[in-house]
């Protein structure tokens, strides 16, 4: 199955700033997914990122807050913009490949 | 929309005991997945189920895809301290295998040595 390298693994950020999270995959994949896991909660899909087109956002998530880039078939970024303490969560990228559904190790974001 | 109801929410067991958790849905799923998440890590796939009635094992773990395609269970036999973590069931949306995943709320497992 695909191997995902996600960074940063954690960060503490000031409110009002933005953080960009990167995911690099060791093989070409059509779709990449970005999830949010709020403290003590399950994973919720933010958006689906396809190469060459705009990301598709789930209800409750908007592009201005979570802009996504997908410049090629092995890489994607998620930016958390104008952060507030409510954005403190773990953010994970995921891909589907022949080996199934694989997740990055996550980015633990704390907004102070 | 599709939802997964996972139970129990948490379990506190003694080392050596067997564990059972399950997921149910009002919608049909074509794939059931079971993940484990340890602190500071992303979910790691334990078992994937692709056919109704399928029973699959991975070491001490056994999972089954319910006949109705609306439920699945995960059993852990002879638990050990390293089994501690949060276990999630998940399934792809829209009934396909290339869709994104929806997750159950998780079962937090604690094992007392």
Explain how this protein is built.
- The complex is a heterodimer of chains A (112) and B (113).
- With 112 residues, chain A is mainly beta.
- In chain A, strands 2, 4, 5, 6, 9, 10 and 11 form a seven-stranded mixed beta sheet that branches. In chain A, strands 1-3-8-7 form a four-stranded antiparallel beta sheet, with no helix packed on it.
- With 113 residues, chain B is mainly β.
- In chain B, strands 2, 4, 5, 9, 10 and 11 form a six-stranded mixed beta sheet that branches. A five-stranded antiparallel beta sheet of chain B has the order 1-3-8-7-6, with no helix packed on it.
- Chain B is globular, with a radius of gyration of 13 Å.
- The termini of chain B are far apart.
- The chains are: A mainly beta (112), B mainly beta (113).
N-end to C-end Cα span of chain B:
41 Å
Helix content of chain A: under 10%
Number of helices of chain B: 0
Mean pLDDT score of chain A, rounded?
Answer: 93
Query: Spans of chain B of 5+ residues with little confidence (pLDDT < 50)?
Result: none
Can you write the helix and strand succession of chain A as a string?
Answer: EEEEEEEEEEE
General shape of chain A: globular
Quickly give the structural class of chain B: mainly beta
């Amino acid at each position: 199955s695909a191997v995902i390298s996600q960074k940063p693994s954690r960060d503490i950020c000031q409110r009002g700033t933005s953080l960009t999270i990167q995911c690099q995959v060791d093989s070409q994949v059509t779709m990449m997914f970005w999830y949010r896991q709020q403290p003590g909660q399950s994973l919720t899909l933010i958006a689906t990122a396809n190469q060459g087109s705009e990301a598709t956002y789930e209800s409750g998530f908007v592009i201005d807050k979570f802009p996504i880039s997908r410049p090629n078939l092995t890489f994607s970024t998620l930016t958390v913009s104008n952060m507030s303490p409510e954005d403190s969560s773990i953010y994970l990228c995921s891909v589907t490949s022949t080996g199934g559904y694989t997740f990055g190790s996550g980015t633990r974001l704390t907004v102070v | 929309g599709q939802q997964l109801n996972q139970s129990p929410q948490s379990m506190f067991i003694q080392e050596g005991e067997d564990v059972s958790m399950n997921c149910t849905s009002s919608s049909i799923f074509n794939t059931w997945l079971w993940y484990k998440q340890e602190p500071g890590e992303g979910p790691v796939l334990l078992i994937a189920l692709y056919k109704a009635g399928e029973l699959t094992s991975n070491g001490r773990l056994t999972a089954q895809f319910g006949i109705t395609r609306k439920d699945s269970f995960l059993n852990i036999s002879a638990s050990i301290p390293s089994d501690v973590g949060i276990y999630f069931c998940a399934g792809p949306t829209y009934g396909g295998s290339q869709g994104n995943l929806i997750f159950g709320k998780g079962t937090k497992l604690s094992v007392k040595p």
